[in-house]
Amino acid sequence: SLTGIPPTAGFMGKYLLFQAAIGRKLYLLAAAGALNSAISLFYYFRIGRAMFMEERPEDPPTLRPSPSVTAVLALCALVLLVLGILPHLVSDWASASGLSD
To answer: Residue 58 carries which DSSP code?
Structure first.
């Protein structure tokens, strides 16, 4: 979600932010944001590569998360996906607040 990969809430947030910047003709700001997103993508994927593609040590320690930690992580992932697929759940609420255009 931090890198802005669809269909997560981070993608919709960045999309709406870039759309607003371009709509107000702030092209340099939108380009700087896109460049920053590309740089962050590089750093975040390094973590994923280390987790899933590099070889493990000979005898890695076994850690088992508790059921409550697993439930919280699953809930957070579900919320990120739901807000990415159905962004109007939050954007309509923000528009009704009168703080956005």
So the answer is: S
Q: How confident is the model over 26-78, as pLDDT tens digits?
A: 999 999 999 999 998 888 888 888 888 888 777 777 889 999 999 999 999 99
Q: Residue 82 corresponds to which tokens in the numbers above? A: 């739901």
What token pair was written down for 87? 């962004």
> Could you give the C-alpha distances from 46 to 38, 53, 73, in angstroms and in order?
13, 10, 21
- pTM of model > 0.85: no
If phi > 0 it is left, if psi is from -120 to 50 it is alpha, else beta; for residue 80 that is alpha
Dist. CA 96–CA 24, nearest whole Å = 21
The one-character DSSP state at 98 is T
Q: CA dist 54 to 48, 51, 82, Å?
A: 9, 7, 31
- Compute CA 35 distance to the chain's CA centroid, rounded to the nearest angstrom: 16
* Environment class of 5 (CB within 10 Å of its CB; exposed 0-12, middle 13-18, buried 19+): middle
